[in-house]
Amino acid sequence: MTKSSEASRLLSEHGLTPKKWMGQNLVVNPHYLHKILEAARIEAGDTIVEIGAGLGALTQGLLDLGAKVRALEIDRGFYRLLEERFTGNPDVVLLHEDALKYDLRGLAGELGPLKVVANLPYNISSRLIFKFHEDSDVFSSLCILLQREWPNASWPCPAPRTTGFSRCSWQPVPMWKPASTSLEVPSFRFPKSLPG
């Protein structure tokens, strides 16, 4: 798995920084990566959909457990880094895609019920949670890491009789399966996001 020093080196070599405007946070601490993977209950041979693959630390952890990975990454710089890291690995399919627009239902038609493991970018967490809820029948499990601030913030929810979003206070989204908090990752365990 990617350690903090290796993450810093990769970011520097590729001229990358986590972008604050995209809400990017990269989990690179092996202890917390292990905890996320443990919570996801991965079995050898599982095909996992990873949203926001970043530096590929979680991707590598999934591979180490014997999973096959469909990794979505919208950021061009991180996608190029992932290509360098995983090109030639038959167990990884890299998708330069926007998770908000990606056809998860179509992917489930190809693979069967989806297992998702994701460190969700803060700025799109609400919209992705709604997408997961709307397509809830295509998932067998979701293991997602959210910033602690997310449920406490004002977040978009469907506005009545409109196609847009309005602002509303947090309220629990009725989920199709029980949800729980498996671990909390301190903020200092993430490389700092920079403005712009």
Please characterize this protein's 3D structure.
The chain has about 200 residues and is of the alpha/beta class. It has a single domain (about 5-185), classed as Vaccinia Virus protein VP39 (Rossmann fold). The chain is built from six helices and seven strands; from the N terminus they run H-H-E-H-E-H-E-H-E-H-E-E-E. It has helices at about 5-15, 30-40, 55-65, 75-85, 105-110, 125-135, and strands at about 45-50, 70, 90-95, 115-120, 140-145, 155-160, 165-170. It has a five-stranded parallel β-sheet. Strands 6-7 form a two-stranded antiparallel ribbon. Strand 6 (about 155-160) and strand 7 (about 165-170) form a beta hairpin.
Give a short overview.
With 196 residues, the protein is of the alpha/beta class. The chain has one domain (4-186): Vaccinia Virus protein VP39 (Rossmann fold, 3-Layer(aba) Sandwich), CATH 3.40.50.
Count of discrete structural domains: 1
Helix content: 25-40%
CATH class: Alpha Beta
- Which architecture would the CATH scheme give at its second level? 3-Layer(aba) Sandwich
Number of helices: 6
Strand elements, count: 7
Rg calc: 16 Å
Structural class: alpha/beta
Distance between the termini: 28 Å
Strand content of the residues, in percent? 15-25%
- CATH topology title: Rossmann fold
Q: Strand order of the main beta sheet, please?
A: 3-2-1-4-5
- Mean pLDDT value: 75
Give a quick set of tags describing it:
alpha/beta; five-stranded parallel sheet; 6 helices
Question: Any chance you could write out the topology, listing elements then pairs?
Answer:
Elements: H1 4-13, H2 30-40, E1 47-51, H3 57-64, E2 68-72, H4 76-86, E3 92-95, H5 104-111, E4 114-119, H6 125-134, E5 139-145, E6 155-158, E7 165-168
Parallel strand pairs: 1-2, 1-4, 2-3, 4-5
Antiparallel strand pairs: 6-7
